[in-house]
Write a structure and sequence with these properties.
It is a single chain. The chain contains 11 helices and 15 strands. It is an alpha/beta fold. The protein folds into 3 domains: 5-93, Winged helix-like DNA-binding domain superfamily/Winged helix DNA-binding domain (Arc Repressor Mutant, subunit A); 118-184 and 296-334, D-Maltodextrin-Binding Protein, domain 2 (3-Layer(aba) Sandwich); 189-281, 3-Layer(aba) Sandwich (D-Maltodextrin-Binding Protein, domain 2). Helix 6 links the parallel strand 3 and strand 4 (147-153). Helix 2 (26-42) packs across helix 4, helix 3 (45-52) packs across helix 4 and helix 10 packs across helix 11. The longest helix is centred in the first third of the chain and has 26 residues, at 86-111. The chain is elongated, with a radius of gyration of 26 Å.
Length: 335
């Protein structure tokens, strides 16, 4: 009978963990594992020490002692980098699961029958965070003063396993099914311009008209976001003269309002300017798009196990309610 390496490694892991735990307190065991996880995830003893607020020597000593107890090399160490060995990768996967369960259990016990408190970590796309979430976060803090918000707005691709993140707002198609995902807003993009721009250059009716105009493009981490038209020939990339390329939300919108060109914006970004009359939606029979995905939206993501924690539960409920109200207003604005 042939046994796979993965099965052998799991047996090895279980035996070594048993030997490692004998004669040590649970706190000693968890501390050594915590140090190993931090080094593996940061790729550095110094960064791991900074995360754990321990001396570098203490972290190094813990990891070395762990390897000695397990009688296995978990890390390859060179002067330039630290990387996991094959058995180290298997060990890390098991340890991360144990660590996450213990952290969630501790948070649940600490918060049981108490008012929402602690640090709430939020991750969101930059534009959505700045334009939509910022005023809602301020309102949330007034309602729940005992909760400290740690918010990071970035367009970089995030690890959707949400390690270290309580709530995550992301746009695109339906995300990782291992997470709870609520579609809180549509994320379709619409062609828009300032009234002055359209008065000066006219309103495009078809692709030929459109390609006589100037475009203001958003630059994502992977590059400029192109515009597409679907016709009998399939999906064609629109060819417009470029007025501006930027990843700055404020520069993008200021440039559209100033009449420098046409732009594609989601309704959640465009709506306040439509209401103020500084932007108008450009209607076309076959308008350009930036995606042909049917499930495109803004999703609120979180881990199901963490919803039991009061700070997470009240935040999920708060943002779902507030964003639903905003989305309803956007729908009225489109009609």
């Amino acid at each position: 009978m042939r046994i796979s390496f993965a099965k052998i490694a799991k047996i090895f892991f279980a035996l070594q963990m048993f030997q490692h735990y004998r004669g040590k307190t649970a706190l000693d065991q968890f501390k050594a594992i915590e140090c190993f996880i931090a080094v593996a995830e940061t790729g550095s003893f110094s960064k791991a020490a900074e995360r754990l607020r321990l001396p570098v020597s203490s972290v190094s000593r813990q990891v070395t002692a762990l390897e000695s107890q397990l009688k296995a090399e978990l890390l390859f160490r060179t002067t330039r980098q630290i990387r996991l060995t094959e058995v180290g990768q298997l060990y890390l996967s098991q340890c991360q699961d144990i660590s996450e369960r213990l952290t969630n259990a501790q948070a649940l016990v600490n918060s049981y029958q108490s008012e929402p408190s602690g640090t709430l970590t939020i991750s969101a796309m930059t534009s959505f965070g700045e334009l939509v979430l910022t005023p809602l976060i301020e309102e949330f803090q007034q309602q729940y003063p005992q909760i400290l918000i740690d918010a990071e707005f970035s367009d970089q691709v995030q690890d959707l396993t949400l390690k270290g993140i309580d709530l995550c707002f992301r746009g695109g198609p339906l995300p990782d099914k291992r997470l709870i995902a609520y579609k809180v807003m549509e994320n379709q993009f619409y062609l828009c311009a300032s009234p002055d721009y359209l008065q000066q250059y006219g309103q495009p009716k078809n692709l030929e008209d459109l390609e006589q105009h100037k475009a203001i493009y958003y630059r994502a981490p992977i590059g400029r976001v192109p515009w597409w038209i679907a016709d009998d020939q399939g999906h064609r990339r629109c060819q417009l003269d470029t007025a501006l390329i930027t990843n700055s939300t404020s520069l993008l919108i200021n440039s559209i309002v100033a009449g420098k060109g046409l732009c594609m914006l989601p309704m959640w970004a465009m709506y306040p300017y439509l209401e103020a009359g500084s932007l108008v939606q450009v209607e076309m029979e076959n308008p350009p798009r930036i995606s042909f995905e049917e499930s495109v939206g803004i999703y609120l993501l979180y881990q199901q196990t963490r919803y039991q924690i009061p700070k997470v539960r009240c935040a999920v409920d708060f943002f779902r309610q507030k964003l639903a109200q905003l989305e309803k207003g956007h729908d009225l604005g489109k009609s």
